[in-house]
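Database export, one record per block. Field names are fixed; values are copied verbatim from the stored entry.
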Amino acid sequence: MRLAKVAGPVLRRLPAETAHRAAINGLKIAPPAQAPSSDPRLAVEILGLKFPNPLGLAAGFDKNAEVPGAMLRLGFGFVEVGTVTPRPQPGNPKPRLFRIPQRCALINRMGFNNKGVDHLAAQLIRSRYTGIRGVSIGKNFDTPIENAHDDYVTCLRKVYALADYVAVNISSPNTVRLRELQGSGGLERLLGALIEERRVLQERYGRRVPLLIKIAPDLTSEQICALARDLRALEVDGVIATNTSTDRSAILNAPAAAEAGGLSGAPLHAMSVRVIAQLRAELGPSFPLIGVGGIVSAEHARETLRAGANLIQIYTGFTYRGPVLLEEIMQALSA
């Protein structure tokens, strides 16, 4: 924890993607630390799992499952690795990650850069640290959208025995046509294939791994209402709300505003909370929701939980503020 605090100012002097790679490498060689104990009052039981606290690391930080143990030892209640695709892919051309420090925000168009699901599975097998680990799955960039379900099923099959839950990423703006899967036809085809495969895997492994879908913050109220109807009809265990946004209205004067990609960080918070609140109203009090998007302070964390999230995740706020943000959130929730 102390090393991470010291490294933060140094990393912020580097180009954004270089700093991210350096952070991952540093965490890989850092001496193992004892995880801080969570306030037992913060434990959350949901999805058939007991989370020691409601604060998780969002997908995108550890795409290849290189440091899930290190992140859990920082005090996260759970870690989501990925997004992973069946085959390795380099992602979009660089530069593809842009800081907007005055708004505590990022724009990224990474494009699911990862080493493939076989590599990620091997990493999880080697990881000895126990803790709740989710795996975010996606499709390769060159897989036609009509065949996207084949990619997701392949990933599910290979991570099923290693994941505590699986997040189905259908909302990244950086893979062409991916967000079409949020519509009724695409969603039904995709989830139908995944749920059928899960029945086979559940029988094989003797355990039922929860399936969650990750959605965009840019959905209209009517689209959220339609999505909620679809979710009630399908065997989906939960929703992660939300992914990054293509809306630039909150950062019009920022130098990076014209860059293509998804916006994350503080400007996303209000959009994410709006989606979470409507989903909670549509889906009722017992449907599991993970809130993510723009949580860069303890007050943002509380607002996301008050909107209806059972659990929360951070990423951009962590890249700017480091372990200090974890401490701040945990102290506020305990208080």
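Remark 1: The mean pLDDT is 92.
Remark 2: The longest helix spans residues 184-205.
End of record.
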